[in-house]
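Holo prediction. Input below; ligand is pyridoxal-5'-phosphate.
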Amino acid sequence: MKYICRPPGKKSIGILKRDEKVISRSYTREYSFVFRKARGCHVWDVDGRKYLDFAAGVAVAGVGHTNPDVVRAVRRQAGISIHAGFADFYAELPVDFTELLLTFLPSHLNNAFLSNSGTESIECAYKLARWHTKRKWVMAFNNCFHGRTMGSLSMTNSKPVQRDRYGPFLPVKHVDFPYFYRCPHRPLCKAPDECSDNCLNGIEKTMKELKNDLAAVFVEPIQGEGGYIVPPDSFLPGLRKLCDEHDVLLCSDEVQAGCYRTGTFLAMENFRTKPDVVSLSKAVGGGVPLGVTVANKSLMDWPHGAHANTFGGNLLACAGGIATLKYMRRHRLGENAKRIGRILLKGFEDMKDRYEIIGDVRGKGLMIGIEFVKGKNSRQYGIEERGTVLCKASEKGLLLLAAGRSVIRVCPPLIMTREQALQGLDIFEDAVRHANGGCP
Ligand SMILES: Cc1ncc(COP(=O)(O)O)c(C=O)c1O
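Structure of the complex:
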Protein backbone atom coordinates (compact mmCIF):
# COMPACT_ATOMS: atom_id res chain seq x y z
CA MET A 1 0.00 0.00 0.00
CA LYS A 2 1.54 3.31 -1.08
CA TYR A 3 -0.92 5.87 0.23
CA ILE A 4 -2.83 6.12 3.48
CA CYS A 5 -5.49 8.56 2.33
CA ARG A 6 -8.34 9.31 4.65
CA PRO A 7 -7.71 7.44 7.91
CA PRO A 8 -9.27 4.00 7.46
CA GLY A 9 -12.34 3.25 9.63
CA LYS A 10 -12.29 0.75 12.50
CA LYS A 11 -13.39 -2.28 10.49
CA SER A 12 -10.99 -1.43 7.66
CA ILE A 13 -8.06 -1.24 10.10
CA GLY A 14 -8.92 -4.68 11.50
CA ILE A 15 -8.99 -6.26 8.04
CA LEU A 16 -5.82 -4.46 6.90
CA LYS A 17 -4.00 -5.96 9.91
CA ARG A 18 -5.29 -9.48 9.25
CA ASP A 19 -4.51 -9.14 5.54
CA GLU A 20 -0.94 -8.14 6.26
CA LYS A 21 -0.39 -11.38 8.20
CA VAL A 22 -1.75 -13.90 5.71
CA ILE A 23 -1.92 -12.38 2.21
CA SER A 24 1.01 -12.17 -0.20
CA ARG A 25 2.62 -8.74 -0.33
CA SER A 26 2.92 -8.93 -4.10
CA TYR A 27 -0.50 -7.42 -4.87
CA THR A 28 -0.50 -3.92 -6.29
CA ARG A 29 -2.86 -2.18 -3.84
CA GLU A 30 -2.35 1.59 -3.99
CA TYR A 31 -4.44 2.70 -1.03
CA SER A 32 -6.38 1.52 1.97
CA PHE A 33 -9.83 0.93 0.51
CA VAL A 34 -11.40 -2.22 1.97
CA PHE A 35 -14.23 -3.44 -0.26
CA ARG A 36 -17.57 -4.42 1.24
CA LYS A 37 -20.18 -4.38 -1.53
CA ALA A 38 -21.03 -2.75 -4.84
CA ARG A 39 -24.03 -1.99 -7.02
CA GLY A 40 -24.21 -0.25 -10.38
CA CYS A 41 -21.64 2.57 -10.38
CA HIS A 42 -21.09 2.64 -6.61
CA VAL A 43 -18.99 0.70 -4.13
CA TRP A 44 -18.99 0.71 -0.33
CA ASP A 45 -16.14 0.02 2.06
CA VAL A 46 -16.50 -2.10 5.20
CA ASP A 47 -17.04 1.02 7.29
CA GLY A 48 -20.08 1.95 5.22
CA ARG A 49 -18.47 4.74 3.17
CA LYS A 50 -19.92 5.09 -0.31
CA TYR A 51 -17.79 5.83 -3.38
CA LEU A 52 -18.57 6.67 -6.98
CA ASP A 53 -16.55 4.15 -8.96
CA PHE A 54 -14.33 5.34 -11.82
CA ALA A 55 -12.36 2.09 -11.74
CA ALA A 56 -14.96 -0.70 -12.18
CA GLY A 57 -12.68 -3.28 -10.53
CA VAL A 58 -10.10 -2.57 -13.30
CA ALA A 59 -12.55 -2.37 -16.19
CA VAL A 60 -14.40 -5.53 -15.11
CA ALA A 61 -17.80 -4.16 -14.09
CA GLY A 62 -18.78 -3.02 -17.59
CA VAL A 63 -22.45 -3.87 -16.99
CA GLY A 64 -22.22 -2.30 -13.52
CA HIS A 65 -21.47 -4.00 -10.24
CA THR A 66 -23.80 -6.79 -9.15
CA ASN A 67 -25.78 -6.43 -12.34
CA PRO A 68 -29.24 -7.91 -11.58
CA ASP A 69 -29.34 -9.94 -14.84
CA VAL A 70 -25.93 -11.44 -14.13
CA VAL A 71 -26.85 -12.19 -10.51
CA ARG A 72 -30.08 -13.90 -11.58
CA ALA A 73 -28.34 -16.00 -14.24
CA VAL A 74 -25.50 -17.09 -11.95
CA ARG A 75 -27.89 -17.90 -9.07
CA ARG A 76 -30.11 -19.94 -11.34
CA GLN A 77 -27.18 -21.84 -12.82
CA ALA A 78 -25.67 -22.53 -9.38
CA GLY A 79 -28.90 -24.36 -8.51
CA ILE A 80 -28.57 -26.57 -11.60
CA SER A 81 -24.84 -27.29 -11.72
CA ILE A 82 -21.57 -25.39 -11.34
CA HIS A 83 -18.89 -27.48 -13.01
CA ALA A 84 -19.17 -29.74 -16.04
CA GLY A 85 -15.53 -30.66 -16.73
CA PHE A 86 -15.64 -29.11 -20.19
CA ALA A 87 -12.16 -30.34 -21.15
CA ASP A 88 -13.37 -33.95 -20.94
CA PHE A 89 -17.14 -33.79 -21.49
CA TYR A 90 -19.51 -31.74 -23.61
CA ALA A 91 -21.99 -29.16 -22.26
CA GLU A 92 -24.50 -26.78 -23.83
CA LEU A 93 -23.91 -23.55 -21.89
CA PRO A 94 -20.30 -22.94 -23.07
CA VAL A 95 -21.55 -23.48 -26.64
CA ASP A 96 -24.42 -21.02 -26.03
CA PHE A 97 -21.97 -18.47 -24.66
CA THR A 98 -19.53 -18.89 -27.55
CA GLU A 99 -22.25 -18.70 -30.23
CA LEU A 100 -23.52 -15.49 -28.66
CA LEU A 101 -20.05 -13.98 -28.32
CA LEU A 102 -19.28 -14.67 -31.98
CA THR A 103 -22.25 -12.51 -33.02
CA PHE A 104 -20.35 -9.52 -31.54
CA LEU A 105 -17.20 -10.23 -33.54
CA PRO A 106 -16.08 -9.96 -37.17
CA SER A 107 -17.15 -13.11 -39.03
CA HIS A 108 -13.64 -14.48 -39.54
CA LEU A 109 -13.32 -14.91 -35.76
CA ASN A 110 -15.41 -18.08 -35.47
CA ASN A 111 -13.65 -20.49 -33.07
CA ALA A 112 -13.02 -20.04 -29.35
CA PHE A 113 -11.05 -21.44 -26.43
CA LEU A 114 -12.47 -20.75 -22.96
CA SER A 115 -10.45 -20.05 -19.83
CA ASN A 116 -10.67 -18.03 -16.61
CA SER A 117 -8.55 -14.91 -16.83
CA GLY A 118 -6.77 -12.40 -19.02
CA THR A 119 -3.38 -14.02 -18.72
CA GLU A 120 -4.79 -17.41 -19.71
CA SER A 121 -6.49 -15.91 -22.73
CA ILE A 122 -3.07 -14.56 -23.76
CA GLU A 123 -1.25 -17.83 -23.01
CA CYS A 124 -3.71 -19.55 -25.31
CA ALA A 125 -3.12 -17.00 -28.10
CA TYR A 126 0.64 -17.32 -27.61
CA LYS A 127 0.64 -21.12 -27.73
CA LEU A 128 -1.73 -21.12 -30.68
CA ALA A 129 0.50 -18.72 -32.63
CA ARG A 130 3.55 -20.89 -32.00
CA TRP A 131 1.72 -24.12 -32.74
CA HIS A 132 0.10 -22.90 -35.92
CA THR A 133 3.14 -21.17 -37.43
CA LYS A 134 5.77 -23.59 -36.06
CA ARG A 135 7.82 -20.45 -35.30
CA LYS A 136 9.50 -19.39 -32.07
CA TRP A 137 9.61 -15.62 -31.73
CA VAL A 138 6.86 -13.15 -30.95
CA MET A 139 6.97 -9.38 -30.94
CA ALA A 140 5.47 -7.21 -28.20
CA PHE A 141 5.64 -3.52 -27.32
CA ASN A 142 7.60 -1.53 -24.81
CA ASN A 143 5.31 -0.53 -21.97
CA CYS A 144 2.84 -3.36 -22.69
CA PHE A 145 0.94 -5.50 -20.20
CA HIS A 146 -0.33 -8.94 -21.15
CA GLY A 147 -0.44 -10.73 -17.78
CA ARG A 148 1.86 -12.35 -15.25
CA THR A 149 2.15 -16.06 -16.03
CA MET A 150 5.43 -16.96 -17.71
CA GLY A 151 4.27 -16.83 -21.35
CA SER A 152 2.39 -13.56 -21.03
CA LEU A 153 5.02 -12.18 -18.63
CA SER A 154 7.69 -12.77 -21.25
CA MET A 155 5.86 -10.06 -23.21
CA THR A 156 4.75 -7.81 -20.32
CA ASN A 157 7.14 -4.97 -19.57
CA SER A 158 5.18 -1.96 -18.35
CA LYS A 159 7.09 -1.91 -15.01
CA PRO A 160 10.50 -3.42 -14.07
CA VAL A 161 9.09 -4.98 -10.86
CA GLN A 162 6.84 -7.23 -12.95
CA ARG A 163 9.89 -8.95 -14.52
CA ASP A 164 12.68 -8.67 -11.93
CA ARG A 165 14.28 -12.06 -11.16
CA TYR A 166 11.84 -14.03 -13.33
CA GLY A 167 14.05 -14.53 -16.38
CA PRO A 168 15.03 -16.29 -18.52
CA PHE A 169 11.95 -15.53 -20.60
CA LEU A 170 10.50 -16.94 -23.78
CA PRO A 171 11.78 -15.47 -27.06
CA VAL A 172 10.14 -12.04 -27.34
CA LYS A 173 11.40 -8.95 -29.18
CA HIS A 174 10.18 -5.67 -27.71
CA VAL A 175 9.62 -2.74 -30.04
CA ASP A 176 8.44 0.86 -29.58
CA PHE A 177 4.77 1.78 -29.25
CA PRO A 178 3.82 5.24 -30.57
CA TYR A 179 3.43 7.03 -27.24
CA PHE A 180 3.56 10.45 -28.82
CA TYR A 181 3.39 12.49 -25.60
CA ARG A 182 6.62 10.78 -24.49
CA CYS A 183 7.97 10.09 -27.93
CA PRO A 184 10.37 7.12 -27.88
CA HIS A 185 12.41 8.52 -30.79
CA ARG A 186 15.41 10.84 -31.00
CA PRO A 187 15.13 13.39 -32.52
CA LEU A 188 11.61 13.65 -31.19
CA CYS A 189 8.78 13.22 -33.67
CA LYS A 190 6.90 16.38 -34.53
CA ALA A 191 3.48 14.83 -35.17
CA PRO A 192 1.61 11.66 -34.10
CA ASP A 193 1.72 10.16 -37.60
CA GLU A 194 5.47 10.65 -37.76
CA CYS A 195 5.75 8.80 -34.44
CA SER A 196 3.58 6.02 -35.85
CA ASP A 197 5.70 5.77 -39.03
CA ASN A 198 8.94 5.65 -37.06
CA CYS A 199 7.58 2.83 -34.87
CA LEU A 200 6.38 0.94 -37.94
CA ASN A 201 9.84 1.29 -39.51
CA GLY A 202 11.41 -0.22 -36.38
CA ILE A 203 8.87 -3.05 -36.44
CA GLU A 204 9.55 -3.80 -40.08
CA LYS A 205 13.27 -3.91 -39.42
CA THR A 206 12.73 -6.42 -36.60
CA MET A 207 10.40 -8.48 -38.80
CA LYS A 208 13.14 -8.71 -41.41
CA GLU A 209 15.72 -9.69 -38.77
CA LEU A 210 13.51 -12.50 -37.48
CA LYS A 211 12.61 -13.61 -40.96
CA ASN A 212 10.66 -16.90 -41.03
CA ASP A 213 10.91 -17.32 -37.27
CA LEU A 214 8.43 -14.69 -36.11
CA ALA A 215 5.04 -16.20 -35.19
CA ALA A 216 3.03 -13.18 -34.09
CA VAL A 217 2.83 -9.60 -32.93
CA PHE A 218 0.93 -9.05 -29.68
CA VAL A 219 -0.58 -5.61 -29.22
CA GLU A 220 -2.99 -3.85 -26.89
CA PRO A 221 -4.95 -1.56 -29.27
CA ILE A 222 -4.83 1.00 -26.46
CA GLN A 223 -2.13 0.29 -23.89
CA GLY A 224 -3.78 -0.24 -20.50
CA GLU A 225 -1.55 -0.75 -17.47
CA GLY A 226 1.20 1.15 -19.31
CA GLY A 227 -0.81 4.38 -19.02
CA TYR A 228 -3.92 4.33 -21.27
CA ILE A 229 -1.93 5.23 -24.36
CA VAL A 230 -3.90 5.69 -27.56
CA PRO A 231 -1.85 5.13 -30.73
CA PRO A 232 -2.21 7.51 -33.71
CA ASP A 233 -4.99 6.41 -36.10
CA SER A 234 -2.51 5.23 -38.73
CA PHE A 235 -0.61 2.85 -36.45
CA LEU A 236 -2.75 -0.28 -36.18
CA PRO A 237 -3.71 -0.35 -39.90
CA GLY A 238 0.02 0.04 -40.64
CA LEU A 239 0.83 -2.82 -38.27
CA ARG A 240 -1.82 -5.01 -39.95
CA LYS A 241 -0.24 -4.29 -43.33
CA LEU A 242 3.23 -5.24 -42.09
CA CYS A 243 1.91 -8.47 -40.56
CA ASP A 244 0.29 -9.38 -43.90
CA GLU A 245 3.43 -8.56 -45.87
CA HIS A 246 5.63 -10.63 -43.56
CA ASP A 247 3.13 -13.44 -42.97
CA VAL A 248 2.92 -12.83 -39.23
CA LEU A 249 -0.18 -13.21 -37.02
CA LEU A 250 -1.66 -10.11 -35.41
CA CYS A 251 -2.93 -10.91 -31.89
CA SER A 252 -5.06 -8.24 -30.24
CA ASP A 253 -5.10 -8.15 -26.45
CA GLU A 254 -8.60 -6.82 -25.78
CA VAL A 255 -8.62 -7.96 -22.16
CA GLN A 256 -8.95 -4.39 -20.84
CA ALA A 257 -10.01 -2.44 -23.92
CA GLY A 258 -12.58 -4.91 -25.27
CA CYS A 259 -16.29 -5.44 -24.57
CA TYR A 260 -17.41 -1.91 -25.57
CA ARG A 261 -15.00 -0.13 -23.19
CA THR A 262 -13.87 2.12 -26.06
CA GLY A 263 -17.32 2.40 -27.66
CA THR A 264 -16.91 -0.45 -30.15
CA PHE A 265 -17.02 -4.09 -29.04
CA LEU A 266 -13.38 -4.60 -29.97
CA ALA A 267 -11.06 -1.64 -29.49
CA MET A 268 -9.44 -2.62 -32.82
CA GLU A 269 -12.67 -1.56 -34.59
CA ASN A 270 -11.90 2.08 -33.73
CA PHE A 271 -8.90 1.72 -36.01
CA ARG A 272 -10.65 -0.33 -38.72
CA THR A 273 -8.21 -3.16 -38.15
CA LYS A 274 -8.99 -6.87 -38.14
CA PRO A 275 -6.79 -9.02 -35.89
CA ASP A 276 -6.14 -12.74 -36.45
CA VAL A 277 -6.49 -13.66 -32.79
CA VAL A 278 -8.38 -11.86 -30.03
CA SER A 279 -8.01 -12.31 -26.26
CA LEU A 280 -10.87 -11.19 -24.03
CA SER A 281 -11.51 -11.34 -20.28
CA LYS A 282 -12.31 -8.78 -17.54
CA ALA A 283 -15.75 -7.35 -18.51
CA VAL A 284 -16.92 -10.34 -20.56
CA GLY A 285 -18.03 -12.33 -17.49
CA GLY A 286 -19.83 -9.45 -15.75
CA GLY A 287 -17.58 -10.02 -12.69
CA VAL A 288 -17.33 -13.81 -12.89
CA PRO A 289 -13.84 -15.03 -13.94
CA LEU A 290 -13.89 -15.77 -17.66
CA GLY A 291 -11.31 -15.62 -20.42
CA VAL A 292 -11.79 -16.27 -24.13
CA THR A 293 -9.41 -16.56 -27.07
CA VAL A 294 -10.97 -16.31 -30.51
CA ALA A 295 -9.56 -16.96 -33.98
CA ASN A 296 -10.54 -18.43 -37.30
CA LYS A 297 -11.23 -22.19 -37.27
CA SER A 298 -8.52 -22.76 -39.85
CA LEU A 299 -6.00 -21.09 -37.52
CA MET A 300 -7.18 -23.05 -34.48
CA ASP A 301 -6.04 -26.21 -36.20
CA TRP A 302 -4.29 -27.76 -33.22
CA PRO A 303 -5.10 -31.35 -32.27
CA HIS A 304 -6.86 -32.88 -29.25
CA GLY A 305 -4.73 -32.35 -26.17
CA ALA A 306 -2.59 -29.51 -27.57
CA HIS A 307 -4.26 -27.09 -25.14
CA ALA A 308 -6.92 -27.61 -22.44
CA ASN A 309 -7.78 -26.73 -18.84
CA THR A 310 -9.97 -27.74 -15.91
CA PHE A 311 -12.16 -24.70 -15.42
CA GLY A 312 -12.56 -23.34 -18.96
CA GLY A 313 -16.25 -23.42 -19.90
CA ASN A 314 -17.22 -23.21 -16.23
CA LEU A 315 -20.99 -23.09 -16.08
CA LEU A 316 -21.29 -20.16 -13.67
CA ALA A 317 -18.85 -18.17 -15.80
CA CYS A 318 -20.75 -18.97 -18.99
CA ALA A 319 -24.11 -18.10 -17.39
CA GLY A 320 -22.60 -14.79 -16.25
CA GLY A 321 -21.07 -14.23 -19.67
CA ILE A 322 -24.34 -14.82 -21.53
CA ALA A 323 -26.26 -12.45 -19.23
CA THR A 324 -23.47 -9.86 -19.60
CA LEU A 325 -23.39 -9.92 -23.40
CA LYS A 326 -27.19 -9.80 -23.68
CA TYR A 327 -27.30 -6.86 -21.28
CA MET A 328 -24.57 -5.02 -23.19
CA ARG A 329 -26.48 -5.44 -26.44
CA ARG A 330 -29.94 -4.67 -25.08
CA HIS A 331 -28.79 -1.53 -23.27
CA ARG A 332 -26.49 -0.39 -26.10
CA LEU A 333 -23.56 0.03 -23.75
CA GLY A 334 -21.20 0.84 -26.61
CA GLU A 335 -23.24 3.94 -27.44
CA ASN A 336 -23.37 4.93 -23.79
CA ALA A 337 -19.61 4.49 -23.49
CA LYS A 338 -19.15 6.88 -26.41
CA ARG A 339 -21.67 9.43 -25.07
CA ILE A 340 -20.42 9.50 -21.47
CA GLY A 341 -16.83 9.17 -22.70
CA ARG A 342 -17.23 12.40 -24.68
CA ILE A 343 -18.49 14.24 -21.58
CA LEU A 344 -15.63 12.97 -19.43
CA LEU A 345 -12.94 13.54 -22.06
CA LYS A 346 -14.11 17.12 -22.58
CA GLY A 347 -14.18 17.69 -18.80
CA PHE A 348 -10.63 16.40 -18.37
CA GLU A 349 -9.36 18.32 -21.41
CA ASP A 350 -10.80 21.53 -19.95
CA MET A 351 -8.99 20.74 -16.69
CA LYS A 352 -5.77 20.24 -18.61
CA ASP A 353 -6.08 23.84 -19.84
CA ARG A 354 -6.56 25.09 -16.28
CA TYR A 355 -3.98 23.07 -14.32
CA GLU A 356 -0.23 23.03 -14.77
CA ILE A 357 0.05 19.49 -13.37
CA ILE A 358 -2.06 17.84 -16.09
CA GLY A 359 0.22 17.18 -19.05
CA ASP A 360 -1.88 15.00 -21.29
CA VAL A 361 -5.45 13.71 -21.59
CA ARG A 362 -6.29 10.91 -24.03
CA GLY A 363 -8.78 8.16 -24.52
CA LYS A 364 -11.58 6.52 -26.42
CA GLY A 365 -15.03 5.87 -24.99
CA LEU A 366 -14.74 5.12 -21.30
CA MET A 367 -11.02 4.35 -21.36
CA ILE A 368 -9.43 7.69 -20.48
CA GLY A 369 -5.97 8.48 -19.17
CA ILE A 370 -4.94 11.69 -17.40
CA GLU A 371 -1.16 12.07 -17.22
CA PHE A 372 0.26 14.11 -14.34
CA VAL A 373 3.47 16.11 -14.63
CA LYS A 374 5.48 18.46 -12.43
CA GLY A 375 5.01 21.14 -15.07
CA LYS A 376 3.76 21.33 -18.64
CA ASN A 377 7.13 22.34 -20.06
CA SER A 378 9.36 19.86 -18.26
CA ARG A 379 6.92 16.97 -18.62
CA GLN A 380 8.65 15.45 -15.60
CA TYR A 381 6.53 12.60 -14.20
CA GLY A 382 4.06 13.97 -11.62
CA ILE A 383 4.16 10.92 -9.38
CA GLU A 384 3.46 12.77 -6.10
CA GLU A 385 0.84 14.93 -7.82
CA ARG A 386 -0.95 11.82 -9.02
CA GLY A 387 -0.78 10.30 -5.53
CA THR A 388 -2.32 13.41 -4.01
CA VAL A 389 -5.16 13.37 -6.54
CA LEU A 390 -5.87 9.67 -5.88
CA CYS A 391 -5.98 10.34 -2.13
CA LYS A 392 -8.01 13.54 -2.21
CA ALA A 393 -10.52 12.04 -4.63
CA SER A 394 -10.98 8.97 -2.46
CA GLU A 395 -11.46 11.16 0.62
CA LYS A 396 -14.25 12.91 -1.27
CA GLY A 397 -15.83 9.65 -2.37
CA LEU A 398 -14.41 8.98 -5.84
CA LEU A 399 -12.57 5.73 -6.46
CA LEU A 400 -9.73 5.96 -8.99
CA LEU A 401 -6.86 3.77 -10.15
CA ALA A 402 -3.34 4.54 -11.25
CA ALA A 403 -1.67 3.35 -14.46
CA GLY A 404 1.77 3.89 -16.01
CA ARG A 405 4.20 6.07 -14.06
CA SER A 406 2.05 9.12 -13.41
CA VAL A 407 -1.33 8.46 -15.02
CA ILE A 408 -4.79 8.13 -13.52
CA ARG A 409 -6.99 5.83 -15.53
CA VAL A 410 -10.71 6.41 -15.78
CA CYS A 411 -12.63 3.25 -16.64
CA PRO A 412 -16.04 3.43 -14.96
CA PRO A 413 -18.89 0.99 -15.51
CA LEU A 414 -20.30 1.45 -19.02
CA ILE A 415 -23.76 2.09 -17.54
CA MET A 416 -22.62 5.41 -16.04
CA THR A 417 -25.11 8.28 -16.30
CA ARG A 418 -24.37 11.88 -17.29
CA GLU A 419 -25.10 13.05 -13.73
CA GLN A 420 -22.67 10.54 -12.25
CA ALA A 421 -20.00 11.53 -14.78
CA LEU A 422 -20.44 15.22 -13.92
CA GLN A 423 -20.33 14.48 -10.20
CA GLY A 424 -17.09 12.52 -10.72
CA LEU A 425 -15.57 15.38 -12.72
CA ASP A 426 -16.37 17.83 -9.89
CA ILE A 427 -14.67 15.65 -7.29
CA PHE A 428 -11.72 15.01 -9.60
CA GLU A 429 -11.26 18.73 -10.18
CA ASP A 430 -11.36 19.47 -6.43
CA ALA A 431 -8.61 16.90 -5.95
CA VAL A 432 -6.52 18.31 -8.83
CA ARG A 433 -6.90 21.85 -7.44
CA HIS A 434 -5.62 20.62 -4.10
CA ALA A 435 -2.63 18.87 -5.74
CA ASN A 436 -1.96 22.00 -7.79
CA GLY A 437 -1.38 23.97 -4.59
CA GLY A 438 -4.97 25.23 -4.35
CA CYS A 439 -4.96 27.13 -7.64
CA PRO A 440 -6.56 28.36 -9.74
C1 LIG B 1 -4.41 -5.79 -21.52
C2 LIG B 1 -4.34 -6.85 -20.46
N1 LIG B 1 -3.99 -8.10 -20.80
C3 LIG B 1 -3.91 -9.08 -19.89
C4 LIG B 1 -4.18 -8.84 -18.57
C5 LIG B 1 -4.08 -9.95 -17.55
O1 LIG B 1 -5.32 -10.25 -17.04
P1 LIG B 1 -5.46 -11.08 -15.66
O2 LIG B 1 -5.03 -10.18 -14.58
O3 LIG B 1 -6.93 -11.43 -15.61
O4 LIG B 1 -4.62 -12.28 -15.79
C6 LIG B 1 -4.56 -7.55 -18.17
C7 LIG B 1 -4.83 -7.24 -16.76
O5 LIG B 1 -4.88 -6.13 -16.32
C8 LIG B 1 -4.63 -6.53 -19.14
O6 LIG B 1 -4.96 -5.27 -18.82
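The pocket of pyridoxal-5'-phosphate is lined by residues 58, 117-119, 122, 145-147, 220, 224-225, 253, 255-256, 281 (CB under 6 Å). That is the main takeaway for now.
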